[in-house]
Amino acid sequence: MVKTAISRQSKPKKHEKLTEINYRNNTESDYTETIEFLDKTFEYDAHSRDYWGQPELSLLYGTPLYEQASSTQKLALNHLYWATQYNQTAATEANAVLYNQVTAGVFGAFNGYDTLCQMLELETEQERSHIHAFHTIGYRTKRALLGKSAFNASILRKPGGKPKLAFNDFSNWIVVKNLVNSSLQEEAFRFFTHKVLLRHQVHSYSQYLKELEAKGEPIPAQTTGLLGQIAPRSALQFFTLNCGTSPFLACLFFLTRYMANMLLKNWEYRYVQFYRELNQKDCLIPAPTAVSYNHLMDESFHTTTSRLIAKDLYKDFPQPTAYEKLIANLTIYRAQTIGLSGLSGSVPATFRSDAAFILPLYRLLQSPVFDLSAQEAQIWLQQCLCQEHEGFHLNGKYHQHLLTELRQSFDSLDYLWPVNRELRIFTLGNNISQAIKHNRKVIEQFSRSLS
């Protein structure tokens, strides 16, 4: 493959030096290997009697139900929070596995980015190990605490009636909708991307996408994680093509990845603190806590990569066109709207509406952890989500910390609209009264779906 030269200064740029240092340090670390060992040896029973993080890292923390819960129930909520958060983290890291390869195929078309591409290849392999560990520990934890009900299809059934889709479960609809995508649509995406919008940058078309196309495989897209939820699959396929053709939009992915890195760090650092406290006291460290510690150490390298590309490397390439700016701003706007527009009263350090968690919470309350009746579960949902409590205030603190961190990073990105650069949607989400008002409507709708 012939690489395209771009104008470069004779003196290496700061981000190039930092990339080399970051790659060397990551290569010499053994955090991923430790995670792989903990993954292979994990058995829930061996770690079931200890907290995996501070008590505040628990589902329903600060709610009236948590205050009345037994010590055994509180321990279960602590473990289930770990499993819940890392299930979402695994989904987001699946985005990274895909787009690391797509964007490396773009950067590799230019001279001078070999180390960066090697870094992305290394990070991709590390992400695969992380995902496997999160799934293993999460699955075994849920199976032990919740039983088979944790893995049933998301349907509700009236006595003697036909099954129906559960409240707020659109998974089946999405599957059906995705079947409509055709090869003709994908060809239209490719034509529009290469020939119309980015015709002057076709030389940088990702080698990874070229190889998939040669095999006759469809345009890849992830529909989970922070990035995967911002649009329908067809739109995400179009986004993949854009990131795989435009160097600027390839860099944009790393701005979304940086947002995900910081979302993770916002709560995972608390596990690191807990790990260090146990280590200092020479106490037994539960395997999930150790996984959290080693994962954040790994992710520190990944966060550095995200920040360097998102804030500095994009300046190596031509100024973004009006179209590229539009795609960038729509992406960040949707990321705010989908993942940063609310305040959960049930899941700490989570900035989405509790509507997404109603059904899992309802199942949790009827699981062996609480063993409540359907009526009791509905009553407790209302008490936990529809009145002010410490859990909401705790989340407000997490919200403010993350907002400060992201604003500092976004401030220098002059291509962003003010609503994105100032994270205005995220800012408005820190509103307890609004969250409670919304929860009341959602629970009312949910209750009707049960009748």
- As for the number of domains, it is 1
Provide the low-confidence segments as ranges.
153-181
Largest sheet: 2 strands, antiparallel
Just give the CATH class: Mainly Alpha
Q: Give the CATH architecture.
A: Orthogonal Bundle
What spatial order of strands do you see in the largest sheet? Answer: 1-2
> Mean of the pLDDT scores?
90
Can you count the beta strands? 2
Secondary-structure content class: mainly alpha
What would you call the shape? globular
CATH topology: Ribonucleotide Reductase, subunit A
Give the C-alpha Rg: 23 Å
Run of helices and strands: HHHHHEEHHHHHHHHHHHHHH
Write up this protein.
The chain is built from 19 helices and two strands. The protein is mostly helical and 451 residues long. It has one domain (14-147, 238-450): Ribonucleotide Reductase, subunit A (Orthogonal Bundle). Helix 1 runs antiparallel to helix 12 and helix 4 packs antiparallel against helix 5 (114-146). The model is unreliable at 153-181 (pLDDT under 50).
Quick structural overview:
With 451 residues, the chain is mainly alpha-helical.
Task: Provide the descriptors you would attach to this structure in a database record.
451 residues, mainly alpha, Ribonucleotide Reductase, subunit A, two-stranded antiparallel sheet, 19 helices, 2 strands, globular
Furnish the topology, listing elements before pairings.
Elements: H1 14-28, H2 31-41, H3 64-68, H4 71-107, H5 114-146, E1 155-156, E2 164-165, H6 171-178, H7 183-197, H8 207-214, H9 225-228, H10 233-243, H11 247-280, H12 287-311, H13 322-339, H14 358-366, H15 374-385, H16 390-410, H17 418-421, H18 424-428, H19 432-450
Antiparallel strand pairs: 1-2
Helix pairs in contact: 1-5, 1-12, 2-5, 2-12, 4-5, 4-11, 5-12, 7-10, 11-12, 11-13, 11-16, 14-15, 15-19
